[in-house]
Amino acid sequence: MLRQHSAQFRKKKPLPDIQAAISDFSESSLRSMVETVSIPRHYVAERENNWRIREWIREKFESFGYAVSLHGEYQNVVATPKNRSSLPFLVAATHYDTVPGSPGADDNGSGIAVLLACAKMLAKVGTIGSTRFILFNREEDDLLGSTEFVRDYLKQREMDISETHVLEMVGFCSHEPNSQRIPPGLPVKAPDVGNFLGLVGNRRSNRIVGDLLVQARTYLEDFPVLGLKVYMGLERHFPHLQRSDHSPFWEAGIPALMWTDTSEFRNPNYHTRFDTPDTLDYTFMKKVAQLLFIRILSHERSIC
């Protein structure tokens, strides 16, 4: 069973300090970061660019005060607050590689920029160390980086993951009629205007989808967010729901969500040389960053 959820979730009373924090997010800063990373950076075909962007990401996290390590054969970037906590932690993740020949502004420069913006803001307001930022490599090669990370995590169990949020293309928005399509075979209805953020959860993470819809209604009432809850393990029958780095977490039984602008079902530049920074909507992307930051702060406070 798959269920779509959106506006029926009621807003709560917003907290003034969270409202103040999210007002500091900047569209121009997000655009600048997307412009920096938007060069073809496939792990094999553009190895030098892949390494170059990896090192730029590492330097940005370090400039915010995070401890950064490179994980595994594929060099996943893991950024940890220096006041590392032993509490259950939230993973905010995306991938930093592209398909060959594509600048990858939306796929996935948008995710990189949102993660960095949230990391910078979290460092500014202070943290108890319960958030990890991870940028996977080789997502475009059968999810090799995230698969490697989850495999090693299950072996070592040095951390306790309470929830994972994977950003998979979060920068393209259209307000034109018929700009949104539904993946073939997916038995749900969706708006025909591609101006919403999609959140996809499964039986272990559907509660988090509901929480985020309430948080979106509370703090970002003008931001359309649509949640898709998948039940009874049915995600295995819908390959389009498993095409990003949340999938290895689902397979391992770890709560995870995919955040998406729905990729090629909205963005005509998907996996092409036309996926450039000028095609993205930075107002939309700022709201994605604000919502993720709201979730991070809520998680930090819930485990204190």
Give a verbal description of the structure.
By secondary structure, the chain is of the alpha/beta class. It has a single domain (2-302), classed as 3-Layer(aba) Sandwich (Aminopeptidase). It contains eight helices and nine strands. Strands 1-8-7-9-6-4-5-3-2 form a nine-stranded mixed sheet, with helices on both faces. The two termini are 35 Å apart. The relative contact order is 0.20.
Name its key features.
alpha/beta, 9 strands, 17% strand, globular, 304 residues
Arithmetic mean of pLDDT:
92
Shape: globular
Which CATH architecture would you pick?
Answer: 3-Layer(aba) Sandwich
Number of distinct beta strands: 9
The biggest sheet, with number of strands, parallel, antiparallel or mixed sense and barrel status, is: 9 strands, mixed
Give the topology:
Blueprint: E1 2-5, H1 16-22, H2 27-37, H3 47-63, E2 66-71, E3 76-81, E4 89-95, H4 105-125, E5 131-136, H5 144-156, E6 161-168, E7 197-201, H6 206-219, E8 225-230, H7 247-251, E9 256-260, H8 282-302
Parallel strand pairs: 4-5, 4-6, 6-9, 7-8
Antiparallel strand pairs: 1-8, 2-3, 3-5, 7-9
Helix pairs in contact: 2-4, 2-8, 4-8
